[in-house]
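Need a sequence for this fold. Nothing fancy.
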């Protein structure tokens, strides 16, 4: 496992522990947010283990018809396709 993969997995594990702590205290909104972070960082670990890390998200607020979201969704589908085939 390369250093980048280890890095993303360590942070994902930390975020998962944070989500568990938030669950125990009833901070449900933050549980959802932290679980989202765990999924995102785990996907980054998978992609980094393959050696291809594409730019996933864009912050362009001026994109017409949410093209920024569409582009991100397409990239995420591509990443998942790469991960499933390895």
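Here you go.
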């Amino acid at each position: 496992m390369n250093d980048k993969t280890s890095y993303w997995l360590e942070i994902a594990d930390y975020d998962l522990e944070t989500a568990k702590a938030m669950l125990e205290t009833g901070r449900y909104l933050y549980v959802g947010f932290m679980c989202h972070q765990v999924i995102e960082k785990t996907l980054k670990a998978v992609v980094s283990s393959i050696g291809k890390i594409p730019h996933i998200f864009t912050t362009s607020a001026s994109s017409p018809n949410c093209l920024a979201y569409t582009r991100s969704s397409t990239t995420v589908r591509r990443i998942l396709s790469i991960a499933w085939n390895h």
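For context: The longest helix spans residues 28-50.
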